[in-house]
């Protein structure tokens, strides 16, 4: 997602405004001049200033010229959301269906997304979760959810 | 002496030695794979360190980071793709040597001078840190405030990025650090009623998200790097001694720049490499040869980034202020293992400190044989298809984030930070500055507020005390540096333009 400096600068101004506003509503500590509100407000004003400067193109000269990614269509960029989406699914489902199955599904999907053939993706989806389970569950004693399929150890 | 022997005994424990060997191989492999950085290697290691003894935990971090910084040079040399950002400064030079048929020499320089730089950096750490500890004992919250702020400002001076965007990124990090109730007043801030946010945002999920998940996301959009042509390498270390004798000044200058940049809070190996490559070119007698495969710049910056790896532990150990993103992780591990950073660490835990120095030296020595093995097998390792590596990385992100607190919320944080890091990186906002903001936010606020309470709301003591005044001056220099550069460029541009028009 490549945004123009105007858009990202405006977003920063908005974020800074929200931070300053949210900070200013925090309750003060009785008998103390500098309460919990000061820091968020300082940061908020800083962000507003930075956002304005970025939107106006200040400091742009320092940036390295960026290489263009070529004429890919915009929906191609949505591919990038696959890994975080899988992480969210992992958070939601791992307890229920268990680590091994969830991890296998995750590895399989990502491997296929990177253009792996089934010859590579399938063995990887079986072996990688087992190996990770062995290291984390047996060696490091991290409690991984069992779910529908328990590991043989 | 007693401490040294005790430290050696700590390092000689079998679990520590196994940890060093395993993390050496791990660091070499991760560093060599393009796109997998040294910071990512260390961030993914943290869950593992939970279950190790303190010295073994520190040993894995040190060894893996030192190895990864070196092995990032390998794909730089062979494919012109830097394996870690710290190699980016001289990737073109190294690749030019490979094209001239001197791949062995280029890789040998990276290896040999990395090890020398690392050892020099360790020696500097051994000398500088205890000496500074004496001074640091007299530091009060005023000095801590400026130190933390200086660290943040240095982090915004990262090469090749707009300083305004860097400051914005840092402020975002500070804002994230505000979340939770770990502030001097103990008021819950920006928790949006979520109990998971009361404790604040943990640094490790943020790091894993920003440096690992975002990288997987980026890789999905990029074409696969070209496969490495199979090649047989000749002797790697041949001629390195000759180069050492030929460029002693460059080596020492690289070492020194690395140490200075490393000791500065907030600036680490990446910056050291860029600065020393530029200085090397500036002072060289053969400037024209730079960029065409000339070993001089490689010698200097290859040494600089590894000496910065060691010396960036100075502010980390003394003040708990990270020298770079790797030590930001290391500080977390130190706290977790009861080795709380601070000047007293050097007196109370002297044997652990000696163990730490020894691990650094050991890591840089075994770097040479392990590095040679890595170079010889690099054609194999670099053939590992991304489609096999990336899924495993993502799986490790999920499991590692979960392992830190057995809290599924951490996995969500990793995903969110992955998105944030991805968007920021795409738009030229340096994520390292944000990470350092998250790490140091509570320290900046804590020291600021308690200083203000001590001084009864007066700002004068912030600059009155001698060391505090010096640190304040340094901080403002760092803040105004880009403005100065811009003015100089403007003036020079104006002087050049009329003369150009006259021709």
Concise summary:
Chain A is built from five helices and no strands. With 153 residues, chain A is mainly alpha-helical.
Mean pLDDT of chain B, to the nearest integer, reads: 86
Share of residues in strands of chain B: under 5%
Oligomer: heterodimer
Radius of gyration of CA atoms of chain B, rounded to a whole number: 22 Å
The overall number of domains of chain B is 1
Biggest sheet layout of chain B? none
Number of strands of chain A: 0
End-to-end separation of chain A? 44 Å
Class of secondary structure makeup of chain B: mainly alpha
Mean pLDDT of chain A: 84
So how many helices of chain B? 23
- Note the gap between the termini of chain B: 70 Å
As residue ranges, the low-confidence spans of chain A are: none
Summed up, the domain count of chain A is 2
Cα Rg of chain A:
24 Å
Please name the two chains that share the biggest interface, counting residues whose Cβ lies under 8 Å from a Cβ on the partner chain: A-B, 81 and 73 residues
Percent of sequence in beta strands of chain A: under 5%
Question: What can you see in these coordinates?
Answer:
The complex is a heterodimer of chains A (153) and B (503). With 153 residues, chain A is mostly helical. Chain A folds into 2 domains: 5-62; 77-139, no CATH class. In chain A, 59% of the residues lie in helices and 0% in strands. Chain A is built from 5 helices and no strands. Chain A has helices at residues 5-24, 38-55, 82-97, 99-113, 118-139. Chain A is flat, with a radius of gyration of 24 Å. Chain B has helices at 2-11, 14-32, 38-49, 54-71, 73-79, 91-99, 103-136, 141-156, 163-178, 203-221, 240-246, 248-263, 269-283, 295-311, 313-319, 325-336, 345-348, 350-381, 386-405, 408-426, 431-454, 461-464, 466-502. The model of chain B is unreliable at 498-503 (pLDDT under 50). The chains are: A mainly alpha (153), B mainly alpha (503).
